């Protein structure tokens, strides 16, 4: 495939390959902005500017200064260190069998807990809560209308909607009422430290375990990180003994 020359700046050819290499350095979600003709033109202008300034830097002998040499040494050190780390960790792999074994031994970690989706109305007294329930039951107000009219919780703006939640996310009394209530039935007043609630459960989802195929990639990544961390620590310990470290 032809490597088309897009520009020549200060005697240096800037090719399509150069442009694509720069684009690929960006995170994947940002690359799209450079795929259009306009985006590529803007990036090409940046590369041209880079080459012009690089040429100018050489012309005024900045590459002969101590500052330049010190920065180049620092960059070289970073690159060499990064390459050494990558080489140390490169041979660590996780097989499907190892990942599956970890999944079977830790299935609870990959399960979705039971949840309920509910709305609520929060007021100060039990009497007030009972009266509001009456209005909802006899059809004077819908639950959402009553929430907007009476509730002291900020969720009133969404008709009392709390969304979906699992056990452990709400105070115990409220949680018990929500998980034990029938769908579509307004509860009797529920007392908590915040006041009295009327709860309307709209949906319930049973706990479910994710299959190995669903979590395979995350299991492999987790195991890989654990092993890399362990290997890195072991290598550092060996190198400290080999080369010596004095902490002051």
List the helices and strands and how they pair.
Blueprint: E1 5-9, E2 12-15, H1 16-23, H2 28-31, H3 37-59, H4 66-89, H5 96-105, E3 111-112, E4 115-123, H6 126-137, H7 143-150, E5 161-166, H8 172-180, E6 190-192, E7 195-205, E8 208-209, H9 212-243
Antiparallel strand pairs: 1-2, 3-8, 4-5, 4-7, 6-7
Helix pairs in contact: 5-9
Protein name: PpiC-type peptidyl-prolyl cis-trans isomerase
Pfam family, one: Rotamase
Domain PpiC: 113-203
Describe the structure.
This protein is α+β, with helices and mostly antiparallel strands and 248 residues long. Helix content is 52%, strand content 17%. The protein is built from nine helices and eight strands. The protein has helices at 16-23, 28-31, 37-59, 66-89, 96-105, 126-137, 143-150, 172-180, 212-243; strands at residues 5-9, 12-15, 111-112, 115-123, 161-166, 190-192, 195-205, 208-209. Helix 5 packs across helix 9. The protein starts with a strand and ends in a 5-residue tail after the last helix. The relative contact order is 0.10. Residues 113-203 form the PpiC domain. Its EC number is 5.2.1.8.
Fraction of helical residues: 40-55%
Q: What is the molecular shape? A: elongated
Order of strands, widest sheet: 5-4-7-6
Rg, please?
32 Å
Termini separation comes to 58 Å
SS summary, helix count: 9
> Quick one: how many beta strands?
8
CATH class of the domain at 114-206: Alpha Beta
Using the coordinates shown, work out and report the CATH topology of the domain at 114-206: Chitinase A, domain 3
How much is the average pLDDT? 93
H/E series, N to C? EEHHHHHEEHHEHEEEH
- Major sheet: size, sense and barrel closure? 4 strands, antiparallel
Helical/strand content category: alpha+beta
CATH architecture of the domain at 114-206: Roll
Domain PpiC: 113-203
Keywords: Isomerase, Rotamase
GO molecular function: peptidyl-prolyl cis-trans isomerase activity
Enzyme class: isomerase
């Amino acid at each position: 495939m032809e490597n088309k020359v897009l520009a020549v700046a200060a005697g240096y050819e800037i090719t399509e390959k150069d442009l694509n290499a720069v684009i690929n350095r960006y995170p994947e979600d940002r690359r799209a902005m450079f795929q259009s003709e306009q985006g590529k033109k803007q990036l090409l202008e940046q590369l041209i500017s880079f080459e012009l300034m690089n040429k100018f830097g050489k012309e005024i002998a900045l590459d002969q200064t101590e500052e330049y040499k010190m920065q180049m040494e620092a960059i070289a050190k970073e690159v060499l260190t990064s390459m050494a780390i990558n080489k140390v960790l490169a041979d660590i792999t996780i097989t499907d069998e190892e990942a599956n074994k970890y999944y079977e031994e830790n299935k609870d970690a990959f399960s979705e807990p039971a949840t309920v989706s509910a709305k609520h109305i929060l007021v100060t007294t039990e009497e007030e809560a009972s009266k509001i329930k009456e209005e909802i039951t006899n059809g004077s107000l819908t639950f959402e209308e009553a929430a907007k009219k009476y509730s002291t919780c900020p969720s009133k703006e969404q008709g009392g909607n709390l969304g979906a939640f699992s056990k452990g996310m709400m105070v115990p009394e409220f949680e018990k009422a929500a998980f034990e209530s029938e769908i579509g039935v307004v509860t009797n007043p529920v007392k908590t430290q915040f006041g009295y609630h009327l709860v309307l459960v709209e949906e319930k989802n049973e706990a479910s375990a994710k299959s190995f195929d669903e979590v395979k990639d995350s299991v492999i990544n987790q195991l890989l990180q654990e092993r890399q961390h362990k290997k890195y620590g072991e290598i550092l310990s060996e190198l400290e003994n080999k080369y010596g470290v004095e902490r002051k």
